[in-house]
Amino acid sequence: MSKLSKLALFGALFAVLPSASAQDIPTLLQRALNRAASLRYSGERTISFRRDGKPFDTREIVFRDGNRVRIEYPEGSKQAGQIIVEVGEKRRHFTPGKNEIRLLPARREESLERLRRFIKMLKSRGGSISESSGERIAGIPTGQIVFRDQSGNVMQRLYIDPKSGAVLKRNLYDPGGAPVGSMVFTRIEYGRKVSAALFRLDRKGARLVTPADELKELMAKGGFADVRLPKLELEFVRILSTADSPTLLQVYAIKGERVSLFQTKGELDPSSLRKQRGPDLKTRAWSEGGRNFALIGALNDKTMDELVAILRDVP
Predict the structure, then answer these.
(1) Which residue has the higher pLDDT, 50 or 232?
(2) Is residue 204 part of a domain?
(3) Structural domain that includes position 306
(4) Could you tell me how far CA 140 lies from the centroid of its own chain?
(5) How does the average pLDDT of the chain come out, rounded?
């Protein structure tokens, strides 16, 4: 799995909760949520984050027209030549080096819903959301939204264009206050009509690959046990480079959330994995057939236990 999967997952995983009411959040944040589905713009942004303790940065050229999005990776970017197109609920990701088009579920609406759930979770636990003046982003004055936990620790900041409602910058922080991820637009132009052809991604001769195809290949190549959740939507898979043995990661969608399944023949530290992916996640770990497994997600205990029973083939 490419590093772009991390970009697609940018943001935390949160518990399944109803959406926050408009009265509970600042006006500027509500405007951003309400207008997200109708935004039209083109621009350039930079994404930065830490993965496995290592910093990673990339540039993206973005075209957006409502529920249609195209992302290009320009020369000089670590993913130069790659293209992502989202239309409705479908996502296509072209990798020129492999001449592959990966068929994936869209991320856009899910990201909005996760933000709404995060807001509700934060408020229910005594956290706070404040609005204040922000900095100029891409030459545009912004308002700043700050999310703090019940102890006053900053969890994330959003910088929003008050006229359009577009989020022009986002910063994420770990429990210790250190920055773990950011997104910032360096250029943005609103309202310009984008050709419909930009939102088509078809290439003759390119191999179409689903996450299930990739999982099958990785299992065979790496000698992993065929342990999966067949009735759930598999969003992506990749191999993690760990100290004593490679680890297979599978990420599934369920009830609007994600659950991650890890498998390795080496040591597996579930608590460390949970901390890397979010403090509010639940963990189940077990060993079987000379392999170690861990299931991590923001689901309730009953659902987590049911999934483990499926994975272990327990009646």
Answers:
(1) 232
(2) no
(3) 210-311
(4) 26
(5) 85
